[in-house]
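Q: Structure tokens for this one, please.
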Amino acid sequence: AGQGLSWFVLTDHVNGQKFRVDAGAESDWRRTVDAALSASGVLVLPGAEVFLETADAPLGHRSLLFFADQLPGLQRAAIGPSGAGSFVSSCAAVQAWTRDLEARFGPVILVPHHPASPSPMPTDWGCLTEKDAAVEVYSQWGNSLRVVSDAERWAPYDAMVGDPAKHDPAEGTVYQALTKRRDHPLGFMAGTDHHDTTPGAVCEPWSDSKYGGGLTGVVLPTDAPLSRDSLFEAIKARHTYASTGPRVAVEVAVFDPSGVYVGGMGDQVDVTGRVTFRVTVAEPELWDEEVRGVTA
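A: Here is the predicted structure, written as tokens:
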């Protein structure tokens, strides 16, 4: 189940260019939602991929995550802010749409999806809603952190698939989000975009991409069981990290000048003076002979 994952999200297109119109599409999608809600041995969140654009400009794709235990009345064709269409009147309409979703179906979170991909559209960071809690920094399409030159060390991870002549990928990089929207901090997540119900299959390149995809780690309190509620609270609080595939446990701790713990991964801290960061990476014993060092 899910390549040994403890949790995953199933998302498929619910509007825009890739909206399925063939007979049975709606019942297939609802059957997938019901299977996710009733899965045992692994926690599965139902989700959706939503296209968003105005008449003047693209706003980007969002992965929409649902966290309720039951989702009666949820239908694919009624999820998007404009039904099966992708156009909205404004960013304010997107905000209103997310509030309506939560009123009808319980807690939801939005995650900007392949944000730097020039095709079909990069993300407009000016249109973040209160439900945008994290951003997908890595997927089968590459790394959305920033645009780099071929001479830089991590360049092979940064080539997004698409047509740069259509949209500038730099517009949608996570670097732009972190610099232009300091008022809206985001956690980091990673995924695949396979759309074939093979979560966790990240080791081999997929389709026309050079990359296999990524994984998301969530940091939960030691006394919190893995549940839909605990996942929602962790992602909302930015207690997440992204991996290009290796399954490693990561812990971040921040200490004030007197050595007092003031926060962890994704937390915002207000400290005067020098702070100390401690990053702990727990590698599998199987890797002991392979790991030569860790660079932060």
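A few notes: The first strand starts at residue 7 and ends at 10. Residues 152-159 have pLDDT under 50 and may be disordered.
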